[in-house]
Amino acid sequence: MILCDIGNTTFHFLIDGKHKKYFLDEKIPKFKDNIFYISVNEKATKKLIKKNPQAKNLSNIIKFDTTYKGMGIDRIVASIYQENTIVVDAGSAITVDIIENKIHKGGFILLGVHNFLKSYEKISKKLKVNFEKNINLDKIPLQTKDAILYALMKSIILPIKEVSLNKNIIFTGGDGEFLSQFFENSQYKKDLIFENMKRIIDANNCIA
């Protein structure tokens, strides 16, 4: 069994417990095994199915109670088995979802770390900076590079802290591990989406 999470930039496969990523414009292999996927990208989905017509869309069997309109399937899968938790998926965008008593209360979307920096570069080439993980958030910046990185981190950390009082936070996604260090009540789950995809498959006897 192969799992695939199709995002805005990559095909992310889990094959025999090993991760494999392909950019959306790269060729993807033809697999013999069953493939179960979720996708937020219609064009990439067609590409997967053309190469692997046996691939099955898990979104067809997922039931998730929320009044949020337009919620991506990746956010749904990340949130589906939570009780009183904030789920943060930090990828090209950073999605934040609030779950209370197993009910999805809503959420918000922030620019991802690298897209945030790109937005400054579009304003002026003088505002182009490289991301650095060693950022002093306790001191007001005195140079442009530090000012941008300070604004970046504060704009992510503060709204998450505001909604996460007395709640656990689960981080996932490419920048999730880095961001989790700024929150005491947090944990990082690299494979959160794949773990929940497996639970959905098992609960619905998809292999039988």
Can you describe this structure?
By secondary structure, this protein is of the alpha/beta class. The protein has two domains: 2-57, ATPase, nucleotide binding domain (Nucleotidyltransferase, domain 5, 2-Layer Sandwich), CATH 3.30.420.40; 73-192, ATPase, nucleotide binding domain (Nucleotidyltransferase, domain 5, 2-Layer Sandwich). Helices cover 31% and strands 26% of the residues. It has helices at 42-51, 73-79, 113-123, 144-163, 176-180, 192-203; strands at 2-6, 10-15, 18-23, 35-39, 56-57, 85-90, 93-100, 103-111, 168-172, 186-188. Strands 3-2-1-4-5 form a five-stranded mixed sheet, sandwiched between helices. α5 (176-180) links the parallel β9 and β10 (186-188). α3 crosses α4 (144-163). The longest helix is centred in the C-terminal third of the chain and has 20 residues, at 144-163. The radius of gyration is 18 Å and the shape is globular.
Key traits:
single chain; 208 residues; alpha/beta; Nucleotidyltransferase, domain 5; 2 domains; five-stranded mixed sheet; 6 helices; 10 strands; 26% strand; globular
Termini separation comes to 12 Å
**What is the name of the CATH superfamily of the largest domain?**
ATPase, nucleotide binding domain
Which CATH top level class of the largest domain fits? Alpha Beta
Give the total of beta strands: 10
Q: Any guess at the CATH architecture of the largest domain?
A: 2-Layer Sandwich
- Round the mean pLDDT to the nearest integer and report it: 93
Biggest β-sheet, characterized?
A: 5 strands, mixed
